[in-house]
Amino acid sequence: MFLSGYRVGVIGAGVAGLACAYMLAREGAEVVVFERDPPPPEDPELAFSSWKRLGASQVRHSHVFLGRLRVLLRDHYPELLQELLRAGFREMRPIDNPPPALRGRLEPEPGDDDLVALAGRRVTFEWVLRRVIGENPRVQIETDSKVLGLLAVPTVPPQVCGVLVDRGRSREAAIRFHFVVDASGRHSTIPRWLQKIGCRPVVEQQEESGIVYYTRFYRRRAGSEEPKPGQDPWVADWDWLKFALFPAEGGVFSITLAVPLVEPRLKILSRAAVFDRIVRAIPGLRDWVDPDVAEPYAAAPREVEAMGGLMNRRRRFVDADGLIVSRLFVIGDAAYCTNPLYGRGCAQAFLHAHLLLEALREAGGDPQVAATQLDELAQQQLSPFYRASVVADRDAVRRALGKPPVRFLDRVQEGFFRDGVAVAMRTDPVVYRAFLRMINMFETPEQAFLQPEVVARTLWVMSQGEAFRRRHGWRPPPARDRYLMEIGIPSRE
Hints:
- With 493 residues, the protein is α+β, with helices and mostly antiparallel strands.
- It has 17 helices and 21 strands.
- The longest helix is centred in the C-terminal third of the chain and has 18 residues, at 345-362.
């Protein structure tokens, strides 16, 4: 255990912070996790209905735990994977249940076992991590404790040596550590803290996603069967509306509707009756919410959860002059925050914690050397997904406004993906697997779909003409205004 003798402070007990504490403690470190929210109830169902998680507003929205995360657990932390499965998490194997045109045509290939996601609720995921970590005597979780700032030695660059913590009732404490990890999520105030200890500015890029989304949880009725996939998708993008269904544990599932900020009349989706009306009007979802199949989940604290302020943001702590701070690591959404619509948040958080462990191992436990290595690893393995999210969100905003691509190359690319890839992934096994590698975060969209064989097969599909696309592609989305008026949402003024 190469971190024996180290004392580490971790800010935040979300997925990134819990993963980090678990990994560092396994290597011998004594870890104290500071969490401003209270501890969870003893039961995951009670946690879902009553646990106050003001520091993680996304916990009661839809989540999917991508193949990249499952492979990380399977290969390095199998005990965590087993505990999640015992808690009711499901392994979703799309290779075993492909689109209709591919059924019976998918021969097993090496790597198929990687293309498996985990289905479950985010609250249950955190609850399991908390329970497992609580069994490790080297980890202490201080709940109801708010970190106010960093303690540092005024070197060049400043060296973080601890944190200032408010433990409630005006009890403040300065606690020293060998190094500190900020895993406090997308609301992290780390740039301000670093400024106070004399650091150069954080290297930051940020861009709004341009959407807001609404989530409603349901539970299948006793004795009902889960609807089977058909011609109509459970996940789709209609430009003015995106929707997705997420199975979870214990017969629970959730549906998320994401709408562009340029469509303010759809704020009405925060009303349960309107949410249900629009879901019942979507062919791929209506079987799920049939009253004989499912009912709204009574344990949900709100009928519909809304979340806005979604952004893509990347923070780096290395600039042209080198490290801007020493003995501090920033991981998860505090450093790499992407639009949660793409489902990468938990996988990125867990991967970032694992990269930190690998950087510390390679550096022999030296935090200063490890910081530079972590930045390089994150640039290689996380930055491409940040860029992919930014590009996708810019394109989504343009399409929501009804604007065509400006550049000729962009028009060609849009046609390639809309008329080619969207059909080829339902009819061609190579393109289908490329899609699964992309969606599970093993490859970016460019890496997956611009491989020569994938391009060639997609162009062949495009050459088959409109009849082929109508037979095998998704049903065309309905016209926005007419569709909304039919379900009782007034047209724009």
